[in-house]
Design brief:
Elements (H helix, E strand, L loop, with lengths): L7 H16 L6 H17 L4 H13 L3 H14 L4 H13 L3 H14 L4 H13 L3 H14 L4 H13 L3 H14 L3 H13 L3 H14 L3 H15 L2 H21 L4 H13 L3 H14 L4 H13 L3 H12 L7 H6 L10 H11 L1
Length: 357
Amino acid sequence: MEIDPDFALAYAGLGDAYVTKYMAYFDKSSAWLDEAERSCKRALNLDANLPEAHRALGRVYQFRKKYQEAETEFQKSVRLQPDYAEGHRSLAWLYLEQGKLDQAISTAEKAIAVRPLDKETYLLLGLAYQDQKQISKALGMFDKALDIAPDYFRAYYQKGQIFQRRGDYHTAIENYRKAIEFGSEPNLYMDSGWAYLVEEQIDPALEAFKKSIELGLFDYRAYYFLGLAYQKKGEMWMAAASYDSAVLLCRKQIREDPQDPLLYTTLSLALTGLKKYPEAGEAALKAYNLDPENGLILYDLARVYALQNQTGRALEILKKALENPLSSTGCEALRDIHFEKLRDIPDFQALCQADKA
């Protein structure tokens, strides 16, 4: 841009880079989206018919949850250039995020028609089929992505997620290991750590949770699971120290974002680990009031009540959780160490088996 300050495509590229910087865990500051929007609008002032600028601006709107505006910009990008694969793919991601699965699939197929070797679009298709519970199709899409790019760690990670949801933690770990061989992100280490913990491979679990903390996303939650791993190993002082770290980080994050229910469920779990049941109960209630229909939150709350030996409440919340697609599955719940004391209870077995059907 120093050579040509009116080069619209360069501003569009800069806007896209700012969005990626925001998206890819580097820095979730809204300032990056502000910079991205300014760059995109500068590009469009220079060339209102530039597909790349409309797509980049659409991504800004998407991350700001302005879905209608995002869709409008993505539609403009592919209307201006019908063979613009990135435009079709971005529109498909938007539909997927909104749960519009049929539209996500049909739009992703347009991207594939334009660019048959686009690994990210096959990943997207796999996620859409997974959400539709067409698991064989989902695995097929992830395998196609890996045929194109054998080092595509996200495809291995998503395959691991499918096997984990089936309760097959051994195969999940195999895929997580392959993913770690080719890539690195905190969620991958968090999930692989949990799989190791369920399989009672405590030392690999500890290492995975420590790596997740080192990478820095959701470190408050990784500290909780680190405490759980130390507790399973019998190192109670280290467990308590990890739970304390989780509590401190949760409270710090809550001051910055008091409307995030995951912070409160993680706080409740960590306080439960420290046997501070009244405080844990307050945090659990706050989480429930913030998002009473979120399966992920409900599943965490069932864990809290199970650990506190409130069996009836745990089963009540778990039943509601398992009815929600965001929740862990019945297969996972059967092996979840939070529910160890419930495993011989017929109502718990019935709930989990019903979700497997």
